[in-house]
C-alpha cells in the first residue's frame, strides 16, 4: 500500500510501543479534557514542569533568605536557630574597611576580591579574543566551518576535563615546561606560584569558553547586510573606517549581550578552577562559588547560614546583571518592531 | 595542488599578502595548536607508562624501554644501544651499574660480561601504548560504576527534560489562560538562577526528600530548566495555530495534538535541547559533588576530580579516564558540530 | 442535514467587541459567502460556528441543536483553512486519515473514503507524498479532501483560494462550485474578494466592523445595495458616489442637483424626500456612456486605461472623481474634456446616514 524506506520502518517499529502507550494515556486525558476544558488541559501540561521547578528552583530561592537569617551547623531548618541579620553582620565586620584581611570573614573578602579581578580581566581578555576570532572567521575563508569548530571545540568539554588537561600541562613535567626547556629555561612549578595560578585560571577559562562567545559574535557579524559593505566600498571607505563606522556599531547589541553573559558566568566561576588549583595555593584562586561551597558543605567550620548569606549577596549581583541583559533584549526587540 | 592551495590560502583581493592575511593565518594556526594541542597532548600522554610520565623532558609518543630475558638472570634486563671501543654498536643488556661503569651482557651470548662507560650507551626504546591505563581502572577502581552512573544521569535527565519542558512549552505557546504571562515572567526571571546561589537550601530540600546520596537527587533539580522551556516555546510559537485548529476540527484530543502534531513538528528544537542536555548533564560537576558522597554513586566527573585530588595521584589512570570522559563529548561534537553551532547562534544557549 | 442558525451572536476579545448581534439563518445545502474588508469579523464568525472560538453572547444552533457548549470536534463540521493547515510531517494519506482515526472508524472504511475523495479531487497520485512536496493547488485539493472524507454536516472554508495565483484561483473557483453541486452539503465560505462571493454564493453576507450589513443573493446586493458600504463593496470597479441635493421633490420622482449645476431626474415612487435634502448618488461605472451632446456631464479626463475590450476612464467632475467603463477602444487622452451620459442608468440614492433611500 505505502512505500517506506527501511529506516522509517525501523523508526515505526521503535515508536510502536511508545505510540501504544500514548494511546492508552489518551483515554483518561480525554476524560480530563471533557471535565475541565482547555483551561484544565493547559494546567495539566504545565503541572509537571511547574511542580519540579517550584520544588527545586523557586522554593530554594525563597528559603535561602530564611537560611541566611539562621545559625548553627544543622541543615534542617527546624533545627536551626533564628539569628536575624547576624550572618550578614559577620560578613561585614571589619576592623579596617580598606583591608580585607582585617575582616572577621577575611576568606569571604579574599574571594570577593579574587572574583572581582578575575571577572574584570577574564571578561575583557575573552571578549577581545572572541571578537578577533569572530572577525577572522567572518573573512572569506576556505573551510570556515572547520576553523569555527577548532575554536569552538573546548566549549563542550567538561570543566573537570578542562581542569585536568591544564593541570597536566602546567605541572612540573608538563608540556609548558618542556617547551620552555627547549629555549633553555629550567622547569618551573607553575601551580605552586600564587601569581601564576591566578593567571592560569584566567587563561584556562578563556581557553574553555572563548569559542562560545566567538560563535555568537560571528552570527552577529554574518547578520550585517552585505550591501552595507558594498555601499561602503563604492564610496571608497577605508577598511579601518568600515570597521569602526559599520561593523562595530552594528555588532554593538550582540557585543553587549555577550559581555553581560560573560560577566554572569565569570562571577560564578568554580568547576575548572576547583580541579586545576583547588583554590590555592593558599587562597590565591579562591573564588566566590568555592567560598560558598566550602562554607556551606566542605569545611570543618561548616556554616550554612553564612554560605546562604554570601550566596544572596552574589545572587544580588547576578540579578542586576540579568535585569540589565533582559533590558537589552527588550530594547532590541522593540527596535526590531519599529 | 596549485588550485587547492590557492583555494585554501585565498586572500583579500587576491593580489599579494595584506597584513590582515598574515594576522589571519597566524591566528588560525596558533588557534589550531592552542585549542587542539592540549587535548591531543593529554590523549598521547594517557598511553604512557608511569615511568614515561615521570620523565623530563617528556616525549610526544609513548615510549617504553625494551627489556629482554637473558639466560642466567631472574629479572628481565634493560636493553641498551652500546658503542663499543672499536666504534661498532651492539645491543646489550645491563646487568648492574657500578659508578659510571655499567656491566652488560650480550643477550645472545650471556656468558661474557662487558664493561662499558654509561655515557656510551643509550636505552633502546620502542613505541608502545600502555593500554592497561585504560583497562585497569575499570577492573580495580569503580570507573565502570562511575561510567554507568554518568550514563544513567545523562539519559534519564535528558528524557525527563524533553518531556516535561515540551509539555510546559506547549501550554505556554498554544493556550490562552490566566497567569500565562506570570508564568513566562517567572521563567524569564529564573533563566539565570545559578546553582551556586541556591545550593544551600537546595541541599536541604534534597535531604528532606531523602534524595541525598541518590542519583535522582542529581537528576531532578536539573530537569525543569527554564532555558529548555524558553527555546521550545520560541520554536512552538512558529507552528501555525491553524494547524492546531485543524487538528481540533479533526477530533484530536489535546494530548493527541501535543503528541502527534506539535512534538513531531518541534523535532529540530527538541534535538538541539537534547544535545545540550546530554552535554550539560554529562559535564555537571558541582551539584553531583554535593549530593553524592558515597563512592559507588560518583559520576565520572566527581570520580575523576576526587582521584586527581588525592595525595598520591596516579596520573596514568587519571589521564586515561579523562580521555574516556572526553570521548562522548568529542563524538557529539564531531557528528553534531553544525547542529550545535547553528543552535547556539540561534538561541544563545550554552 | 446542515442547517445553521445564529441568534444574537456576540463575541468579545477582552474589551474588543468583534461580533455584534449577528442573526443569520443558513439553510441546508446552501452556499453562503461571508464577505467584507479585512478585520470585519467574518473569519471570527466562521470560527465561532466551527467552535474554535467561544461566543460571549447569543446562541448557535446546528440542525436545531444548541451547540454553544459543544467542542469543535463534536459539532460535525469540517473546515478548510486559509493556509490549508496540512500536517507537514504526515503524508497526504495520513492527513486525510487523521480525523477519521480519531473517531475510531474501521480501517477499511477509512481506506474507502480516502480512495473516493482522492478520485473526486484527482489527488490519487500524491497520496504518499508529504504536503511540502506538493504545489499550492495540490495542497489546496488535499485540504478540501481532508474535509470531504469527514462527510461533515457543513463545510467551513476560510479564504481557501487566497494563497493561489490568479489563474488557478479562477479554475479552482469553478471546481468548488461544481463540488458543491455534487455533494450538496451546506458550505460557508469566507473571502474578502467580492468577485469570488458573486460567482460562488447562493447568498452573500456582507459584513463590516463586526456587523452584518446586508444578506442577499448576489444580484440583490448588486442591484439594490442596502447602504453605501455594500454599494461600494460589491461590483468592480467601485460604484461612483456624487454629492447631490434635492432641488425638486414630486410624487414619483425627485430632481437632484449635482456638481457643476447638473440636474438629475430620478424616478422614485413614494419617497419622503423634500427640497434641500442632502443625498449621495451612486452610479456604477459600467452604466456611464460617452455622449456627444454638450447637455450631458462635462468631465476632465485624468487617466485612461485601455484594456482592449473596454476602456476605463478616470475623470474629474467639479472636484469629484468619476470612473467610467466604456465598451471598445476610444481615442481619448488625459487632459481631454469629454461628456458622460448617465441617461437610463440605474441610480442609487443614499441618505445622510448612508442608507438606501427606498421606494415605497
What's the count of strands of chain A?
2
Chains forming the largest contact? A-B, 106 and 101 residues
- Stated plainly, the CATH topology of the largest domain in chain A is called MetI-like fold
Can you identify the CATH class of the largest domain in chain A? Answer: Mainly Alpha
Instruction: Work out the number of β strands of chain B.
Output: 8
Radius of gyration of chain A: 27 Å
Count of spatially separate domains of chain B: 3
What is the name of the CATH topology of the largest domain in chain B? MetI-like fold
CATH superfamily of the largest domain in chain B: MetI-like
Number of domains of chain A: 2
Structural class of chain B: alpha+beta
Report how far the terminal alpha carbons of chain A are from each other. 53 Å
**CATH homologous superfamily identity of the largest domain in chain A:** MetI-like
The CATH architecture of the largest domain in chain A would be Orthogonal Bundle
Under CATH at level 1, the class of the largest domain in chain B stands as Mainly Alpha
How far apart the termini of chain B lie comes to: 40 Å
SSE topology string of chain A: HEEHHHHHHHHHHH
Strand content of chain A: under 5%
* Largest beta-sheet details of chain B: 6 strands, antiparallel
Radius of gyration of chain B equals: 30 Å
Short account of what is shown:
Chain B has about 350 residues and is an alpha+beta fold. Chain B has 15 helices and eight strands. Chain C is built from eight helices and 20 strands.
Amino acid at each position: 500500500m505505502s512505500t517506506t524506506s527501511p529506516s522509517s520502518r525501523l523508526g515505526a517499529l521503535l515508536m510502536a510501543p511508545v505510540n501504544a502507550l500514548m494511546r492508552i494515556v489518551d483515554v483518561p486525558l480525554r476524560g480530563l479534557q471533557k471535565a475541565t476544558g482547555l483551561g484544565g488541559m493547559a494546567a495539566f501540561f504545565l503541572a509537571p514542569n511547574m511542580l519540579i521547578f517550584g520544588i527545586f528552583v523557586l522554593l530554594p530561592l525563597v528559603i535561602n533568605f530564611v537560611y541566611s537569617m539562621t545559625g548553627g551547623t544543622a541543615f534542617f531548618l527546624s533545627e536551626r536557630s533564628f539569628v536575624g541579620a547576624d550572618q550578614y553582620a559577620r560578613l561585614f565586620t571589619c576592623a579596617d574597611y580598606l583591608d580585607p584581611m582585617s575582616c572577621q570573614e577575611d576568606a569571604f573578602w579574599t574571594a570577593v576580591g579574587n572574583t572581582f579581578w578575575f571577572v574584570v580581566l577574564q571578561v575583557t581578555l575573552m571578549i577581545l579574543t572572541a571578537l578577533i576570532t569572530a572577525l577572522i572567521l567572518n573573512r572569506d575563508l576556505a573551510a570556515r566551518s572547520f576553523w569555527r569548530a577548532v575554536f569552538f571545540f573546548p566549549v563542550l568539554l567538561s570543566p573537570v576535563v578542562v581542569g585536568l588537561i591544564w593541570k597536566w600541562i602546567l605541572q612540573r613535567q608538563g608540556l609548558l615546561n618542556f617547551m620552555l626547556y627547549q629555549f633553555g629555561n629550567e622547569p618551573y612549578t607553575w601551580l605552586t606560584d600564587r601569581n601564576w595560578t591566578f593567571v592560569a585560571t584566567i587563561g584556562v577559562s578563556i581557553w574553555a569558553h572563548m569559542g562560545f562567545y566567538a560563535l555568537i559574535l560571528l552570527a552577529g557579524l554574518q547578520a550585517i547586510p552585505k550591501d552595507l559593505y558594498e555601499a561602503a566600498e563604492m564610496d571608497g571607505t577605508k577598511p579601518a573606517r568600515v570597521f569602526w563606522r559599520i561593523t562595530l556599531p552594528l555588532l554593538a547589541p550582540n557585543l553587549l549581550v555577550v559581555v553581560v553573559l560573560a560577566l554572569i558566568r565569570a562571577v560564578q566561576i568554580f568547576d575548572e578552577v576547583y580541579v586545576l588549583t583547588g583554590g590555592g595555593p593558599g587562597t590565591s584562586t579562591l573564588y566566590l562559588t568555592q567560598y560558598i561551597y566550602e562554607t556551606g558543605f566542605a569545611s570543618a567550620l561548616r556554616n550554612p547560614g553564612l554560605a546562604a548569606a554570601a550566596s544572596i549577596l552574589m545572587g544580588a549581583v547576578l540579578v542586576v546583571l540579568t535585569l540589565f541583559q533582559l533590558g537589552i533584549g527588550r530594547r532590541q526587540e522593540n527596535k526590531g518592531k519599529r | 595542488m596549485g588550485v587547492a592551495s590557492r583555494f585554501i590560502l585565498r586572500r583579500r583581493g587576491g593580489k599579494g599578502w595584506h597584513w590582515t592575511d598574515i594576522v589571519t593565518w597566524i591566528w588560525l594556526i596558533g588557534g589550531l595548536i592552542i585549542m587542539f594541542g592540549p587535548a591531543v597532548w593529554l590523549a598521547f600522554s594517557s598511553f604512557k607508562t608511569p615511568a614515561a610520565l615521570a620523565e623530563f623532558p617528556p616525549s610526544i609518543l609513548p615510549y617504553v624501554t625494551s627489556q629482554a630475558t637473558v639466560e642466567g638472570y631472574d629479572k628481565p634486563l634493560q636493553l641498551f644501544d652500546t658503542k663499543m671501543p672499536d666504534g661498532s654498536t651492539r645491543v646489550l643488556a645491563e646487568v648492574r651499574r657500578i659508578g659510571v661503569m655499567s656491566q652488560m651482557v650480550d643477550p645472545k651470548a650471556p656468558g661474557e660480561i662487558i664493561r662499558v662507560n654509561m655515557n656510551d650507551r643509550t636505552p633502546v626504546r620502542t613505541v608502545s601504548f600502555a593500554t592497561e591505563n585504560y583497562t585497569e581502572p575499570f577492573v580495580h577502581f569503580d570507573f565502570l560504576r562511575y561510567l554507568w552512573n554518568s550514563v544513567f544521569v545523562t539519559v534519564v535527565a535528558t528524557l525527563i527534560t524533553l518531556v516535561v519542558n515540551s509539555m510546559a512549552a506547549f501550554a505556554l505557546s498554544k493556550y490562552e489562560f490566566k497567569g500565562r504571562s506570570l508564568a513566562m515572567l517567572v521563567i524569564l526571571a529564573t533563566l539565570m538562577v545559578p546553582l551556586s546561589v541556591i545550593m544551600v537550601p537546595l541541599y536541604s530540600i534534597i535531604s528532606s526528600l531523602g534524595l541525598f546520596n541518590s542519583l535522582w537527587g542529581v537528576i531532578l533539580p536539573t530537569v525543569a530548566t527554564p532555558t529548555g522551556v524558553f527555546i521550545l516555546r520560541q520554536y512552538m510559537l512558529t507552528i501555525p495555530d491553524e494547524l492546531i485548529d485543524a487538528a481540533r476540527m479533526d477530533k484530536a484530543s489535546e494530548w493527541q495534538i501535543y503528541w502527534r502534531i506539535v512534538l513531531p513538528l518541534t523535532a529540530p528544537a527538541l534535538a538541539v535541547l537534547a544535545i545540550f542536555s546530554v552535554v550539560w548533564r554529562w559535564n555537571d560537576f558541582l551539584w553531583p559533588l554535593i549530593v553524592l558522597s558515597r563512592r559507588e554513586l560518583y559520576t565520572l566527573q566527581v570520580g575523576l576530580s576526587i582521584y586527581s585530588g588525592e595525595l598520591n595521584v596516579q596520573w596514568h589512570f587519571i589521564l586515561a579516564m579523562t580521555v574516556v570522559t572526553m570521548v562522548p563529548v568529542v563524538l557529539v561534537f564531531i557528528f553534531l558540530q553544525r547542529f550545535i553551532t547553528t543552535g547556539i547562534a540561534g538561541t544563545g544557549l550554552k | 442535514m446542515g442547517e445553521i442558525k445564529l441568534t444574537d451572536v456576540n463575541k468579545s476579545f477582552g474589551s474588543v467587541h468583534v461580533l455584534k448581534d449577528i442573526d443569520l439563518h443558513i439553510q441546508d445545502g446552501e452556499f453562503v459567502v461571508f464577505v467584507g474588508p479585512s478585520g470585519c469579523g467574518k473569519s471570527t464568525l466562521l470560527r465561532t460556528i466551527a467552535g474554535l472560538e467561544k461566543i460571549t453572547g447569543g446562541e448557535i444552533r446546528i440542525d436545531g441543536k444548541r451547540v454553544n457548549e459543544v467542542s469543535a470536534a463534536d459539532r460535525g463540521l469540517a473546515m478548510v483553512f486559509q493556509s490549508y493547515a496540512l500536517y507537514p510531517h504526515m503524508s497526504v494519506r495520513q492527513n486525510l486519515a487523521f480525523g477519521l482515526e480519531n473517531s475510531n472508524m474501521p480501517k477499511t472504511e477509512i481506506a474507502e473514503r480516502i480512495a473516493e475523495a482522492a478520485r473526486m479531487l484527482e489527488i490519487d497520485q500524491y497520496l504518499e507524498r508529504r504536503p511540502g512536496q506538493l504545489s499550492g493547488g495540490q495542497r489546496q485539493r488535499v485540504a478540501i479532501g481532508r474535509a470531504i472524507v469527514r462527510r461533515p454536516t457543513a463545510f467551513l472554508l476560510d479564504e481557501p483560494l487566497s494563497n493561489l495565483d490568479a489563474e488557478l484561483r479562477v479554475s479552482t473557483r469553478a471546481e468548488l462550485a461544481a463540488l458543491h453541486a455534487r455533494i450538496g452539503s451546506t458550505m460557508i465560505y469566507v473571502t474578502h474578494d467580492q468577485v469570488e462571493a458573486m460567482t460562488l454564493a447562493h447568498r452573500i453576507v456582507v459584513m463590516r466592523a463586526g456587523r452584518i450589513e446586508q444578506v442577499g443573493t448576489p444580484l440583490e446586493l448588486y442591484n439594490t445595495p442596502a447602504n453605501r458600504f455594500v454599494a461600494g463593496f460589491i461590483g468592480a470597479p467601485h460604484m461612483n458616489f456624487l454629492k447631490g441635493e434635492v432641488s425638486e421633490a414630486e410624487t414619483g420622482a425627485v430632481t437632484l442637483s449635482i456638481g457643476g449645476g447638473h440636474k438629475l431626474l430620478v424616478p422614485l415612487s413614494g419617497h419622503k424626500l423634500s427640497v434641500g435634502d442632502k443625498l449621495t448618488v451612486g452610479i456604477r461605472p459600467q452604466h456611464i456612456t460617452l455622449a456627444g451632446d454638450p447637455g450631458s456631464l462635462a468631465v476632465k479626463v485624468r487617466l485612461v486605461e485601455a484594456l482592449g475590450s473596454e476602456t476605463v476612464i478616470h475623470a474629474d467632475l467639479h472636484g469629484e472623481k468619476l470612473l467610467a467603463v466604456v465598451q471598445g477602444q476610444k481615442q481619448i487622452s488625459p487632459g481631454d474634456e469629454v461628456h458622460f451620459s448617465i441617461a437610463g442608468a440605474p441610480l442609487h440614492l443614499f441618505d445622510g446616514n448612508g442608507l438606501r433611500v427606498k421606494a415605497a
